[in-house]
Design a protein that fits this description.
Rossmann fold, 16 strands, alpha/beta, 16% strand, 405 residues, single chain
């Protein structure tokens, strides 16, 4: 079959590009022709241009050009529909990644003192709204040929869906009804879909495609010898990767000193936006290729840092980790860890000893305890969970493909 994939694929984000490549790799491994729909709106591109160094953006663009089969550019839904019509697909796959991220109107409602009334601001980005956002599926009804479309393992990125108004739910439901099936990446997003479609609507939870990256794309990963040589690293190293400034240099230095006692070298790994090196001697500089980023984590003796996809890569490769989680929603009644995609993955893996949430306001774990968690990491439990995630991924994708037959 010829299948179109609609997801984040070209954004300067390591995890986004890996999940897109893994999906394509799975489809090709199963004998299908995969083509990524090149929808990358201008406002999203402009946002990343403000946040990410141009040299790093160029590196991500090079990854897209060399690794992913993509269509002609689509800057809006009209162009997207035209490209889909021209390619005569047998099915369309939305996902994975945070495609169901949305800013409810109540979060954008502000009182204008001069006008003495409340006004609703526009969404920050097209991909965080409904109008003109193909991730919600409204465009499917405009296709010349009736093509089955399905959603795989998407996330709402801790969207406060409880604030959705009745008219917002109706607008979202109108688009979601165009899908033959919907699966999500976490329980929070499933609750959001149920709030829109009704609790009787079937919504499975499926793993992120990166949980099957070695099976789908393992031949593309550089060797450990190549990585150590090109980046000048010792055999045994632990990565530190942060984009917030929540941790201070002296805190990280104490962790690095504790690791050194056990023969482990501390290495600063950049986020696409920047490198925070904490004064560490070893550091990986930007620009950095997405595949090298994956390999650096795969061959590490440990990962200490933020964001979700590094944790997925670590779990997939049974690499000890300690997650400092910046995600999650805080309301008047406190922090809701279940709204964090990272928390849900670590919780399901049974490895919550390796987890700390900034928004919990709890005292930071001691440097000694962070190192102790890494050294006593339960690899067998991690491997068992990773194996189960890969199995669930295969089944979820096979079930999705069956919808198209």
């Amino acid at each position: 079959m010829k299948l179109g994939v609609l997801t984040y694929f070209g954004v300067p984000n390591f995890g986004a590009q890996l999940q897109a490549l893994s999906t394509v790799g799975f489809l090709q491994r199963k004998g299908h022709e995969a083509l990524v729909l090149n929808w990358y709106p201008n406002d999203l591109r402009a946002m990343y241009a403000r946040r990410v160094p141009s040299a790093q953006i160029q590196r991500h663009d090079a990854f897209t050009a060399s690794m992913l089969p993509i269509t002609m550019p689509c800057r809006n839904e009209e162009e997207l529909v035209r490209v889909i019509d021209e390619n005569d697909f047998d099915g369309l796959i939305h996902g994975s990644d945070a495609l169901f991220k949305y800013e409810p109107e109540k979060t954008r409602r502000h009182f204008r003192a001069r006008k003495l009334r409340f006004e609703v601001q526009k969404v920050s980005l097209v991909v965080e709204g409904i109008e003109g956002n193909p991730f919600w599926g409204h465009y499917v009804a405009s296709l010349k040929k009736r093509i089955p479309a399905s959603v795989y393992a998407v996330s709402s990125q801790h969207c406060p869906f409880q604030l959705l108004t009745l008219h917002e739910k109706r607008a979202l439901r109108k688009g979601l009804k165009n899908f033959a099936g919907i699966s999500v990446r976490d329980e929070w997003t499933r609750q959001m879909v149920h709030a829109i479609m009704g609790k009787e609507y079937q919504v499975d939870i499926n793993p992120d495609p990166v949980f099957a990256f070695n099976q789908n794309c393992g031949s593309k990963v550089p060797s450990k010898e190549d990585i150590l040589r090109r980046f000048g690293l010792p055999d045994h190293y632990v990565l530190f990767s942060f984009w917030t400034t929540a941790l201070k240099n002296d805190y990280v230095t104490r962790i690095a000193e504790e690791l050194k006692k056990h023969g482990l070298t501390s290495v600063a790994l950049p986020m696409p936006e920047r490198l925070i090196d904490f004064g560490l001697e070893y550091k990986v500089q930007l620009p950095l290729d997405t595949m090298d980023w994956y390999a650096l984590i795969k061959y590490a003796d440990g990962y200490i840092g933020e964001r979700m996809h590094p944790i997925v890569v670590a779990i997939h490769n049974a690499v000890p980790f300690f997650s400092f989680d910046e995600y999650g929603m805080t309301t008047a009644d406190g922090f809701h860890p279940e709204s964090s995609k990272t928390f849900l993955i670590v919780k399901d893996s049974g490895l919550l000893d390796s987890y700390y949430a900034y928004q919990s306001k709890a005292e930071l774990p001691s440097p000694e305890s962070v190192v102790r968690v890494l050294l006593n990491f339960d690899r067998k439990k991690c491997e068992a969970f990773a194996t189960e995630m890969q199995r669930k991924y295969e089944k979820g994708m096979d079930d999705l493909i069956d919808l198209f037959r």
